[in-house]
């Protein structure tokens, strides 16, 4: 995770050689965990995906993360996922 106000975060992120950066968004097109001043350095390192939080229920946001995970090859029927979903549905 890139800390919005931390020093060294960008260099640490680049050093991880990420394949994808996933971040929440409160404003369309503005990844929450990507500081504006570092955007031009961070975004070329790996593709980015943003999940909009504004105007969404928690269930909708979780659904968007699930869609992204599935598109990346995650098995949403795996026992760990099914168990987590069941625990969430109880709340």
Biggest sheet features: 3 strands, mixed
One letter per element, helices H and strands E, the order comes to HEEHEHH
Which residues sit in consecutive blocks of at least 5 with pLDDT less than 50? Answer: none
Strand content: 15-25%
Helices and strands: which structural class? Answer: alpha+beta
Shape: globular
Can you walk me through this structure?
The protein has 91 residues and is α+β, with helices and mostly antiparallel strands. Helix content is 40%, strand content 15%. The protein has 4 helices and 3 strands, in the order αββαβαα. 7% of the residues are buried. The model has no long low-confidence stretch (mean pLDDT 89).
Question: Which key terms come to mind for this protein?
Answer:
3 strands; 91 residues; three-stranded mixed sheet; 15% strand; 4 helices; alpha+beta
Topology:
Elements: H1 9-15, E1 21-27, E2 30-31, H2 39-42, E3 48-52, H3 58-71, H4 79-89
Parallel strand pairs: 1-3
Antiparallel strand pairs: 1-2
């Amino acid at each position: 995770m890139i800390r919005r106000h931390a020093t060294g975060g960008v260099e640490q992120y680049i050093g991880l050689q990420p394949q994808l950066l996933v971040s929440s968004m409160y404003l369309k097109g503005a990844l929450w965990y990507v500081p504006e001043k570092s955007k031009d350095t961070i975004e070329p390192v790996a593709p980015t995906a943003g999940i909009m939080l504004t105007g969404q229920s928690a269930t909708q946001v979780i659904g968007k993360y699930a869609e992204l995970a599935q598109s990346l090859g995650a098995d949403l029927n795996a026992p760990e996922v099914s168990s987590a979903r069941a625990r969430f549905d109880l709340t």
